[in-house]
Input
Amino acid sequence: MSWLDSEQRYGAVSRAIHWSMATLLLLMLGTEWLAELVGMSEREAMGLHKSVGVVLLGLLVLRLLWRGMNHGRLEAHAHWKWAARLGHLALYGAMLVIPVSGLLAALGSGHGVELFGLPLIAPGAEIEWLEEAAAETHEVLANLLWLLIGGHVAASLAHQFWLRDHTLKRMA
Ligand code: HEM
Ligand code: HEM
Output
């Protein structure tokens, strides 16, 4: 097993980060629905949503650092290289701006943010314009993320079943 990416395959660390973030992101997108399913109060669910969201922001930083360290190790794409770059860039952009706008929305709401009970942003005065703008951004981009994930999964499946190359295997 290789920790680092190799020419033919993403390494163990890249794969672990990709799949744990993918799982957590889908859970985050389904927060309201999941809370209802397990009978959690909105307040409890929002607390958990904020904590997991901060963890995802940390994982993103780790992922980008690790990606930089592995630069040039993985073989470049043969097919539609620019489409893949653009799609991945959009996913990274959404994974950055969504939690940052969430933090700003929480700051603007005056409710503050805790990371599993550890205070990160103290409760304070409400800043209405900030809350409105940030919550709107958060919501619009969360909807966009659904589309990006859909396109990404479709591209993976196209590689596997249509182009029949190793793209899905090297992340599996
Ligand atoms: C990358 C991770 C995140 C995803 C995918 C995500 C996704 C979502 C979604 C789908 C909603 C429901 C939108 C709506 O219909 O109103 C929401 C609401 C919210 N999220 Fe996040 N979120 C993330 C991270 C965060 C973080 C880090 C925070 C703050 C620390 C946060 C704070 C909030 C708040 C305050 C709301 C309610 C906004 C409102 O008033 O409408 N989120 N988020
Ligand atoms: C749900 C949220 C997901 C997000 C945000 C996400 C994001 C990403 C990103 C940003 C990359 C590029 C990695 C790099 O920098 O090289 C990537 C690669 C990849 N993802 Fe996902 N992914 C998600 C889910 C999935 C799912 C469900 C599948 C499989 C059906 C999948 C299959 C792949 C594959 C095969 C690659 C490697 C592509 C390549 O070789 O360039 N991803 N993903």
About this structure: The helical segments are 12-29, 31-38, 42-69, 81-109, 128-163, 167-171. The two ends are 13 Å apart (CA to CA). The chain has a mean pLDDT of 95.
